[in-house]
Each structure stands twice: as C-alpha cells, then as structure tokens.
Amino acid sequence: MQYVLIILLVLQTSLVVFGQIRQVIQPRNVPAVPYPFSPGVVSNGFLFVSGQVGTNPQTSKLVSGGIEAEAEQTIQNIATILKDAGTSLDNVVSVTVYLSDMDDFPKMNAVYQRFFKAGSYPARTTVGVAKLVFGARVEMTMTAAMPPKTK
To answer: 37-60: buried (b, 16+ CB within 10 Å) or exposed (e) per residue?
Structure first.
C-alpha cells in the first residue's frame, strides 16, 4: 500500500510539472535588457508580456513626442514580442495601462484605438500612477492567447 501511495504521488507531481509548459520570449532584433525579468513568457496557451514603455528598442531611450509617441512605441514594442512568440495584437485578451498623468488618457486612448479592431477590443484596465520607469508617461502589459500550432 505504501508503494502505491508513493507511485501515485510521483505520478501526480509529474503531471503537474510536465503539464505546464513555460517558454521565455526574448525578441530577436532587440538587445537584452539588464533587468531581472523576461519580456514575455508563454504558459498554458497564453503569452504574458511584461510592462513595456515607449523606448526605442535599439537605444533603450524614451522616444520624443509626448504621450502619443510613447503610446505608439509602447504598443509597437509589445507587438514585436507578440510576433516573436507567434501571436499578434489580434489575439490580445487583456491590457493594463499605467499613466503617470491621467489627463493623458484621451490621447493615449486615441493611439490605442488604432491598433485594435472596434468591436473586439481586449479587456482593459487603466491605472494612474505617481511615476514610471525612465520618466515614461505610459506603460502597458498585455496578455495574448497563443494560436493553435499548425502541423
């Protein structure tokens, strides 16, 4: 009986460990950042994209042009991670937007709408914060469904 319980415990642990696939996504044409996080992680059919700001991927400096330019670059940076993972903005199911100035909401929203199809927008939360990394005006995280792999 003791051996049966041990075998069942090992089997259950194996199913939990092997049933969850985790893959780190590092965009190919973007230099790695020296920070302790992954740009994206695929797990259980979803891609979780870490917070991104409107930095030029080659220089790691914020783009100039205010909230509109930063919002556009932020979404383009996320789109790069999505593409390298094998998905796209069309498959985004959830977005969290952080704004350092809530008065920027209408301008950010106008840029955001250009990237998503009306009638099928992802779920979204927008939060006002005191400060963002690099002095950014906007930061976004996104979660996307991974399309089924074709054989």
So the answer is: ebbbbbeeeebbbbbbbbbeeeee
